[in-house]
Design a protein that fits this description.
Blueprint: H1 27-44, H2 51-65, H3 68-82, H4 90-105, H5 109-122, H6 126-133, H7 142-157, H8 164-198, E1 199-207, E2 213-221, E3 228-235, H9 243-251, E4 255-260, H10 277-289, E5 294-303, H11 305-314, E6 321-327, E7 338-339, E8 342-343, H12 350-355, H13 362-365, H14 368-381, H15 388-392, H16 397-403, H17 410-413, E9 429-436, H18 440-453, E10 459-467, H19 468-473, E11 478-479, E12 482-483, H20 492-504, E13 517-521, E14 526-530, E15 539-550, E16 553-557, E17 566-571, E18 589-590, E19 599-602, E20 610-614, E21 617-624, E22 630-638, E23 644-653, E24 672-676, E25 682-686, E26 691-698, E27 726-731, E28 735-741
Length: 742
């Protein structure tokens, strides 16, 4: 993220020298002032004990100061000290070498960089070259880098003088902008030329049985004349300039195919996400299997939407499809656009992103202010959820079609394998997931259903402290302010192709797959391996949500209360000054929790270290004065230092608690049972003295539908339906089950 440019490492703290701030706003004058600032910082900057981070700052300052030889030396020290691969920091090295050559020979930066870049690529094999390509493009785009730098410039110019922390932060922002402004545009044609030198790349249109045309790009390594196993990516994210993704399977030694879903790329059809993807992917698989360059063995891989398309294709049982490797796989109707039958706003802008044109509408999608504003504008208006696009001002026909299916009905069920469909899927599967993947309930639902209906399924799982995007690359050192255990950082792609080699070429199984479930125990820096998710824990701790007080919390007890009683909660659904249901794990470790609403239940401290391993579940007993409500429950570890480590959460609609495909309204004034199971799997080593905290609440926020409890279609309810406040009695025989290992 762009915030990384603002992070200043701990060793800077305490170095309090002041520096003259840049006063210019134009790029020409800044280009003269910032080298002077970098030189001044270098004269006072000292290593405070974390050499890698010190060197990471140092080489950037040296480049800005024009000390190119010293910068190369610093990069080499980083590689030596951290055992970093030669490909790491390659973009920085070529950038500074091109600058040095520009100044030494009086040539242009472009000419110097072109020569260095081309020579570097020619020295690399296919896989090594592929792994360098992404280094030459910024993760968040040049526009965001420019915005970050302007914000940093505005901030420092408001200060009287700069500390060393301020100065390094500002220099890092400036350096990142200069780096990618200098190399990104001129790298793209060089990468394309390198790909064409290594591979035969052909753009195809494949006809499906119903006459639709699917756009596919085939990539074959030059000089290979015998049939090869093929690896397919089937995606809605059409981008004909993304050479790293396009050539990836070929770089790993396969016939590679990336096919775009119906209507994307050169396909002339209408773009309709999800609905045709299974049968279309199957048609593409059938076409691939008949090509002279394919030996009849095909694998698929990819994340999120591309994980969905693999399962959608597997539903058709094509004999040529030998394995799938889904990462954070989506399930339409179960994880998005609704979760446990609650429509959520997180993917609202995605409909425009993928349907506005034949490729991707980056300009619209990467406008966070628009999507944030629509949430609050709709929420504050009190309008029905199905009018949210009217509030935005742009019709969203995709959302409107989805809102007609609040049940998990046949519309959704037909798009993926459903129940007994899994029994006939007999190919080996490797699933990747993350504890903090927003869509984890989808990715693991496939696995749980696969094993439920086909107990002999060969299905492996790798899961660790990753979010949605981190899972797809193998994690980041710091996730939502949580410092991840070093052992958790892996290469998702390398393991993927080790697996494909194992299935399609008879190579050995990836080393990490020591059993079916392979998970990193957060806080232990250790990978664990077991035969099933159930066996991750050695017992279930059942805790009752009592009404007995424990300071500012209620007791979470292992013994069921003798006398049935309840706690009262009142939620004004018409109130727009507050929101209910603060469940989202960002940051993962919190100093405090919002206690303005909700009920807080805490257990006694553990008298020894214990691990939470698996998915918590429970059953709520409640009486309300309306016909429905949306519930949320967040599970925390309260650490001995008083901080809150979020473990997992649940959100869901009470009327669908027992069957997501059929709504059964609650009876006002009657005690109802609301079971829940679809929570996030987590593995966390807790220390002696830690406690478990459950925060129970009703969901009412700008980020999802507001269920006013009338029993009508929730998407059509308005603030006028709020009428009297929602009154809940939460009974003390409500409980949660937490899977533990001691």
């Amino acid at each position: 993220m762009a915030l990384l440019c603002l992070i200043i490492t701990n060793y800077c703290i305490g170095q309090q020298a002041n520096f003259s701030k840049p006063t210019a706003t134009d790029s020409i004058t800044l280009a003269k002032q910032i080298p002077l600032l970098a030189t001044e910082v270098l004269s006072k900057y000292k290593d405070q004990g974390d050499q890698k981070n010190y060197l990471d700052d140092l080489f950037r300052l040296q480049v800005l100061a024009g000390d190119y030889a010293d910068a190369v030396t610093s990069i080499n020290h980083i590689r030596a000290d951290s055992k970093a691969k030669n490909s790491q920091y390659i973009q920085h090295e070529l950038f500074l070498e091109a600058q040095a050559k520009q100044h030494a020979t009086n040539t242009s930066f472009k000419i110097a960089f072109d020569e260095l870049f081309s020579n570097m690529l020619k020295s690399l094999d296919n896989k090594s070259a592929y792994k360098t390509y992404n280094s030459f493009a910024s993760n968040d785009g040049l526009d965001e880098l420019k915005g970050d730098f302007q914000n940093a410039l505005t901030t420092i110019q408001k200060k009287d003088s700069l500390s060393i922390t301020d100065a390094i932060s500002f220099c890092r922002n400036y350096y990142e902008l200069q780096l990618y402004q200098g190399i990104e545009a001129i790298s793209k044609p060089l990468i394309k030329a390198d790909c064409n030198r290594r591979y035969i790349i052909e753009d195809k249109l494949i006809k499906t049985p119903d006459g639709a045309l699917i756009n596919a790009i085939v990539v074959l390594k030059r000089g290979i004349n015998t049939p090869q196993p093929a690896v397919l990516q089937y995606t809605i994210y059409a981008d004909s300039t993304d050479w790293t993704r396009i050539i990836e399977p070929a770089a790993y030694g396969y016939a590679g195919i990336i096919a775009y879903t119906r209507g994307k790329g050169r396909s002339p059809e209408k773009i309709v996400p999800y609905e045709d993807d299974g049968k279309d992917a199957n048609a593409v698989i059938d076409w691939i299997s008949k090509q002279s360059w394919c030996n009849g063995k095909i694998g698929m891989y990819g994340g999120s939407y591309n994980g969905f398309t693999q399962w959608a294709a597997a539903k058709y049982h094509n004999p040529a499809l030998k394995t799938i490797v889904p990462y954070v796989a989506a399930i339409p109707g179960l994880g998005l656009p609704m979760e446990n039958n609650v429509f959520i706003n997180a993917n609202y802008g995605w409909a425009f992103y993928v349907t506005d044109n034949k490729y991707l509408d980056d300009k619209i999608y990467y406008d966070p202010s628009r999507w944030r504003n629509i949430n609050f504008n709709w929420y504050n208006s009190g309008a029905a959820y199905n009018k949210i696009d009217s509030i935005d001002g742009t019709p969203n026909p995709l959302l409107q079609s989805w809102l007609k299916h609040p049940d998990y009905d046949k519309f959704w069920q037909d798009q993926v394998p459903y129940e007994k469909d899994f029994a006939a899927i007999n190919i080996p599967v490797l699933t990747f997931e993350g504890y903090y993947d927003d869509g984890q309930i989808s990715g693991l639902h496939y696995m749980l259903e696969d094993l439920k209906y086909n107990p002999k399924a060969v299905h492996y799982l790798i899961i660790g402290p990753y979010d949605h995007f981190g899972t797809q690359r193998g994690g980041v050192p710091v996730l939502r302010d949580y410092k991840v255990d070093p052992v958790a950082l892996i290469s998702t792609r390398d393991i993927t192709f080790q697996w494909l080699d194992y299935i399609l070429k008879g190579a050995k199984k990836p080393e990490i797959l020591k059993d079916k479930i392979n998970y990193e125990l957060m806080g232990s820096n250790v990978w664990k391996h077991t035969a099933s998710i159930t066996k991750m824990a050695n017992h279930q701790l059942k805790l009752y949500l009592t009404n007995s007080k424990n300071r500012n919390n209620y007791n979470l007890l292992a013994i069921k209360p003798n006398k049935k009683s309840a706690l009262n909660q009142v939620v004004d659904l018409a109130d727009r000054q507050t929101s209910n249901g603060d469940y989202y794990p960002y940051p993962i470790i919190k100093d405090s929790l919002d206690r303005s609403n909700g009920l807080f239940y805490i257990c006694k401290p553990f008298d020894k270290p214990v691990a939470v391993n698996g998915m918590f579940s429970g059953e709520l007993k409640a009486m309300i004065n309306k016909k429905d409500m949306d519930v949320c429950a967040a599970l925390y570890e309260v650490m001995p230092n008083g901080k809150y480590f979020e473990l997992s959460y649940f959100i869901g609609r009470a009327s669908y608690a027992k069957d997501m495909s059929k709504r059964v309204l609650l009876h006002p004034g009657k005690i109802e049972s609301i079971p829940f199971t679809r929570t996030r799997l987590v593995s966390r080593q807790m220390s002696k003295g830690s406690r478990l905290l459950i925060v129970l609440n009703v969901l009412k926020s700008p980020f999802s539908e507001v269920n006013y409890g009338t029993g009508k279609d929730v998407a059509k309810e308005t603030i006028k339906d709020a009428q009297s406040p929602l009154k809940i009695k939460w009974f003390n025989d409500s409980f949660i089950n937490v899977p533990l290992s001691e």
